[in-house]
């Protein structure tokens, strides 16, 4: 029996994100219906609202979520009714050329639910990142669910952030940047993703971790989560300061969580010879980058892009939840506001002012 639930939908480009009733169908083969418990407010959702991801309006927003499985489709064996899960947007296919090479984290054919959720008039909805979790219930592919049943309800908001932004940042350091013990790391941009990259560098054993931003509040939070030094880019040249803090050489790894041409150039020139640059911020499609080719050649090293922190949810989510429960990863520090489904648009405004690392919508327990 299809479910009628409340959800946050944006009907056209730059229209407000508002609560409306939607229809969630019974799950088909390989699909599950989940009751959403919490969902973080991520910049990507606003990109959908602003038409910067696509124009398949109307969009059902939300993707950074914990949920409880309530209904199984045919053939589902990896979860059972009642399981608490983190939702992800990389349900690997196991069959594409990346998966065949053992590079599941680069799967080119990730699974989403085959069916569409709809408005009550039958209009099909496009679910943000194949999830659509600003909703009381949503329909996903079973592979988008990673079980975390041992996590208490009080931790739902924190661990749900692993579903996107926090995983992206931590993975940029650990998986893409391959930070090693004793290395130096600089992170440019200390919003949720950048601060998570700071935490990831600390987990990996970096001994010099330099946080760069223009907001003193964000720099203060970065110190709480592992930064050993800070640079306010309004007051000092980031490249020169990073070099000064690393013996004049530059950092072993520089992570750009802003994704503007100017910050990428800072990352490029702030690294040591043969160092690694990691782009984890999502750039505006209109941006272009110009670098002297002799510098690209002469500085060596690697220029990498980090997709979802190059994570494998089935491997990385449980590992990071374990570190959280051991007290080695402070996910609670990222939850700076708890809000409700009808306040998502206001949460976007709070995010844009830089007042939070993450607002989290709480729907159930």
From TrEMBL:
Enzyme Commission number(s) from the entry: 1.1.1.306
Keyword presence, Oxidoreductase: yes
GO MF annotation terms: metal ion binding; mycothiol-dependent formaldehyde dehydrogenase activity
Record's keyword terms, sorted: Metal-binding, Oxidoreductase, Zinc
Domain Enoyl reductase (ER), first and last residues per copy: 3-361
Cofactor: Zn(2+)
Family, as annotated: Belongs to the zinc-containing alcohol dehydrogenase family.
PANTHER family in UniProt: NAD-DEPENDENT ALCOHOL DEHYDROGENASE, S-NITROSOMYCOTHIOL REDUCTASE MSCR
Record-given protein name: S-(Hydroxymethyl)mycothiol dehydrogenase
């Amino acid at each position: 029996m299809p479910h009628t639930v409340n959800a946050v939908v944006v009907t056209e480009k730059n229209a407000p994100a508002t609560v409306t009733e939607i229809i969630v169908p019974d799950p088909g083969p390989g699909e599950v219906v989940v009751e959403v418990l919490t969902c973080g407010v991520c910049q990507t959702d606003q990109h959908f609202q602003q038409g910067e991801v696509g124009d398949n309006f109307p969009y059902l927003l939300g993707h950074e979520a914990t949920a409880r499985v309530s209904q199984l489709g045919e053939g589902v064996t990896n979860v059972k009714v009642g399981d608490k899960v983190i939702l992800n947007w990389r349900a690997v296919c196991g069959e594409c050329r990346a998966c065949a090479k053992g590079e599941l984290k680069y799967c080119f054919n990730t699974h989403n639910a085959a069916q569409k959720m709809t408005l009550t008039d039958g209009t099909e909805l496009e679910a943000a990142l194949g999830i659509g979790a600003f909703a009381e219930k949503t329909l996903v592919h079973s592979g988008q669910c990673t079980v975390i049943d041992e996590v208490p309800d009080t931790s739902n908001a924190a661990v749900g952030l692993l579903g996107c932004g926090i995983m992206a940042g931590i993975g940029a350091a650990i998986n893409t940047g391959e930070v090693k013990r004793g290395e130096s790391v600089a992170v440019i941009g200390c919003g949720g993703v950048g601060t998570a990259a700071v935490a990831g560098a600390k987990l990996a054993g970096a001994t010099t971790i330099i946080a760069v931003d223009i907001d003193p509040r964000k720099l203060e939070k970065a110190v709480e989560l592992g930064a050993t030094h800070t640079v306010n880019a309004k007051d000092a040249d980031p490249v020169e300061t990073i070099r000064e803090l690393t013996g004049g050489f530059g950092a072993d790894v520089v992570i750009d969580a802003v994704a503007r041409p100017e910050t990428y150039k800072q990352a490029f020139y702030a690294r040591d010879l043969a160092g690694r640059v990691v782009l984890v911020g999502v750039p505006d499609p209109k941006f272009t980058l110009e670098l002297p080719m002799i510098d690209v050649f002469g500085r060596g090293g690697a220029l990498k892009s980090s997709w979802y922190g190059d994570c494998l949810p089935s491997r990385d989510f449980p590992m990071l939840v374990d570190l959280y429960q051991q007290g080695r990863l402070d996910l609670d520090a990222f939850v700076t506001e708890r809000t409700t489904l009808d306040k998502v648009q206001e949460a976007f405004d709070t995010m844009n002012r830089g007042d939070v690392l993450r607002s989290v919508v709480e729907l159930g327990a």
